[in-house]
Design goal:
The protein is of the alpha/beta class. The chain is built from 9 helices and 7 strands; from the N terminus they run H-H-H-E-H-E-H-E-E-H-E-H-H-H-E-E. The radius of gyration is 17 Å and the shape is globular.
């Protein structure tokens, strides 16, 4: 299996949060805050954070949890893991696991919410499907998947600066991702009741979908 290009190493990994803050003029911070508001995290929620990065997302979500709730975060980047541990080590209900998110995961109907924040676009389509299947299997019936990532778009219709960013800086897999009808992919995986929230002039989307409730 090919290594996803989204894995970040070196100086970029060490200063990732600062670079994102500067590069987006604080926009990502505001988007992430709104995303967590949309998640409607309850004190006892169980959350799976796939591709958890530096722990920034987990630390922000944790503020809504009581001791009865918890976050399981998956991240394989060593430098990202070190930053995650530095941010979250004092929180006993935030646990970091060193597991690739596109491989089989040991979770079955355990989580109320699953978050993918600017992660899935860096994988090939076959790997994306495995990640979605993992999220579906990990969610309790009626649980919700939240995907914060690029919206679908035609790159040739975007502005020059954005086209340059996507072609020269963003990973090649992102080009395929923005051309996909990802809502349809979610529906085929078994998700329903999809809704979306757009940011940055429609270039960034929070896509939300529920796991079908089982009926006996």
């Amino acid at each position: 299996m090919n290594r996803p290009h989204i894995e970040i190493t070196g100086p970029v990994a060490r200063f990732y949060d600062l670079l994102v803050f500067i590069g987006t003029a604080g926009l990502y911070q505001r988007i992430l805050k709104r995303t967590i508001e949309e998640m409607e995290i309850e004190p006892n929620s169980r959350i799976l954070d796939l591709g958890a990065g530096t722990g920034k997302n987990a630390c922000m979500m944790r503020k809504n949890l009581s001791a009865d709730g918890n976050i399981v975060a998956l991240e394989i980047g060593k430098q990202m893991q070190r930053q995650f541990q530095k941010k979250c080590r004092q929180y006993p209900n935030v646990n970091l696991w060193n597991i690739r998110i596109e491989t089989a995961l040991p979770f079955t109907q355990e989580f109320d919410k699953v978050l993918l924040s600017f992660v899935i676009h860096g994988f090939q389509q076959e790997q994306q499907q495995k990640i979605l299947s993992n999220a579906f299997g990990a969610l309790k019936p009626g649980g919700t998947l939240y995907i914060l990532d690029w919206n679908e778009m035609k790159l040739e219709e975007q502005g020059l600066i954005f086209r340059f960013f996507m072609k020269k800086i963003e990973c090649p897999e992102a080009h395929d991702f923005v051309a996909m009808n990802f809502g349809q992919v979610l529906s085929q995986t078994g998700f329903q009741n999809m809704r979306e929230l757009l940011f940055a002039g429609g270039k960034i989307r929070l896509l939300m979908a529920e796991k079908k409730t089982e009926h006996f």
